Amino acid sequence: MKEFLSHLFIPKESNNHRAKILHHTNLFLTIVFLLLTSFFTQKLKVSFPSVLGVKADISSEQLLLLTNQERQKEGNSALVLNEQLAQAAAQKAQDMFEYNYWAHNSPTGKTPWVFIKSSGYRYVYAGENLARGFSTPEDVIKAWMASPDHRANMMSSNYQDVGFGVKLGKLNGEETVLVVEELGNLNMPIAQNNKIQEVATASDTNVSHKNVVAVNKKPLINISSFPFNVNVLIVLLFIFAFLLDMIIVEKKKVMRFVGHNIDHILYLILILALVGVFGKGVII
């Protein structure tokens, strides 16, 4: 095993002074492996959802607690869960899955306020927050707080009530978790600037008791992080191989016609950064 790993990662005479893992044949086989992994991952996800699927553990109680903790830091009053707003949030999440869109306004022309009004909540001030692809309430709140507009929406003193819709379903052919937050106030006079900011997430909707919406799905392997972890591991493996190759070749003064290890490393680091960005949930 030691000799095999040495031949695989260390440039020497037995591999023509080029780590075997960096040979064109092995790079090609790695690409084939990634494509096959992606194919079988999708098959396994469909056939065995309890083994490989979207992992999520989010409830309205948790979202409310974390939101109010952030509001408390700003000296704002706590929001109160409202059943009508929770109903509006659940309807909005269902509408996004039904009409396959990720936006504040539905392709059918429905705005967020249509769902709020249809629930019977007669607001004088209202807002919507959306997030998708997150698996924990902490990640949802962190994403909203990291966005200036969403943070302003969550921290606004214009709101007193809130309702959450957490639903798991398929959007654009991909299973995901949506979280919808509807904010409102029945009593405050209409503010001079009633700009509305939005954010949402998805998850399976189950009402455990009044105003509480939650999803709790725990497959053996989390499809949201599994491909990401595999990709990161492979990219890090190649970065390590290129670094080791560069150090040993320089130390032994091996002559090569072509040597662009630094370019390759920078390229892989860029891929790693992009994987990190696109591997996370999104908000609008």
Summarize the structure.
The protein is α+β, with helices and mostly antiparallel strands. It is built from 9 helices and 10 strands.
Write up what this structure looks like.
The chain has 284 residues and is α+β, with helices and mostly antiparallel strands. The chain is 47% helix and 19% strand. The chain is built from nine helices and ten strands. The chain has helices at residues 2-9, 24-47, 60-73, 83-99, 112-118, 137-146, 148-155, 226-252, 261-278, and strands at 52-53, 56-59, 80-81, 125-132, 161-171, 174-185, 206-209, 212-217, 221-222, 282-283. Strand 7 and strand 8 form a beta hairpin. The model is unreliable at 189-212 and 215-221 (pLDDT under 50).
What's the structural blueprint in terms of helices and strands?
Elements: H1 2-9, H2 24-47, E1 52-53, E2 56-59, H3 60-73, E3 80-81, H4 83-99, H5 112-118, E4 125-132, H6 137-146, H7 148-155, E5 161-171, E6 174-185, E7 206-209, E8 212-217, E9 221-222, H8 226-252, H9 261-278, E10 282-283
Features:
284 residues, alpha+beta, five-stranded mixed β-sheet, three-stranded antiparallel β-sheet, 10 strands, 19% strand, elongated
